[in-house]
Amino acid sequence: MRIGVLCSGGDSPGMNAAIRGAVLRGVDVHGFDMVGFMDGWRGFHEGEWIPLDRSTVRGLSPLGGVMLGTSRARPFVHGDGDESDMRVIRERMAEYGLDGFLLIGGNGTQTVAKMLNDAGIRAIGLPKTIDNDLGGTDYTFGFDTAVSIACEAVDRLRTTGESHRRCMVLEVMGRNAGWIALHAGMAGGAQVTLIPEHPESIEQICEWVLSVRNRGRSSLVVVAEGFKPTGFDDEVTREGLDGFGRPRLGGIAEVLAPLIESRTGIETRATVLGHVQRGGSPTAFDRVLATRTGLAAADAVKEGLWGTMMALRGDSIEFVSLEEAVSRLKTVPADRYEQARLNFG
Known about the structure:
Radius of gyration: 22 Å
CATH architecture of the largest domain: 3-Layer(aba) Sandwich
Mean pLDDT: 94
Largest sheet: 5 strands, mixed
Strand content: 15-25%
Number of helices: 11
Oligomer: single chain
CATH class of the largest domain: Alpha Beta
Number of strands: 13
Helix content: 25-40%
Order of helices and strands: EHEHEHEHEHEHEHEEEHEHEEHH
CATH topology of the largest domain: Rossmann fold
């Protein structure tokens, strides 16, 4: 059996470990022939691939980035996945001698995996995203690393903020789901955490900041990039569009900081963490999760469990349907946010 491995969407720490796990189990244990396509669907359509074996993946687990490269190149060359698109993919697969795919990615990638599988093109999903917003799984690999990086930033900003009696506003990633902000804020002891799912007014934010000042402390505010204060018509965006054609988010911290300063009289500074959250070596948790996910994906191929995604549930890796994985965006529930909100200020 010949399996194609393909990464798409944004990079996420742990992707190399997932590739390594899938190849070690698939090639050495199950006897598969495996190939990796460079830069996602671009490599698939342009014929750029490499063979994957034990020597190719040696030493990958601790490495950040993606050894195969990843991109937001479109999988479908004609449209949005109609039969003509599926015919192109089948023809390419026949050229490469492929029997199926292991697709490593987030919501968009797993949606494509489901579309392929529904069209009779065999696919299995491996869930990666720093946003942790895929359904069907407790955690996605990459999330723990992003939170750890954000938490370190919180720790560092707190010391400089306290030194100057400033309010510090840290912006982290999170377009529609505030998991990074919630976990980093809780781990770092931020006095305010703002997420897309639960808008707050500027007045309420300033009230929390003043409450902290009145206790003789300096506030640390963590805000997800997709947060929209009450009364704002749209999220704060930068120039241009992202790889999915959506407005490029970023800069809400730089909007909030002067508003907080003007209304409270407290000197306030903004920091946008940006793509630092995606880079560097994955944490031990992400290395283990990604490796286990890769091993399980190869086992799923052996067992013929196409149309599934490898999901962490409790302490077990389970096979869930791609339909369950992409049927909803996993956002922060109201009760989780309210638990944290009780201690703001």
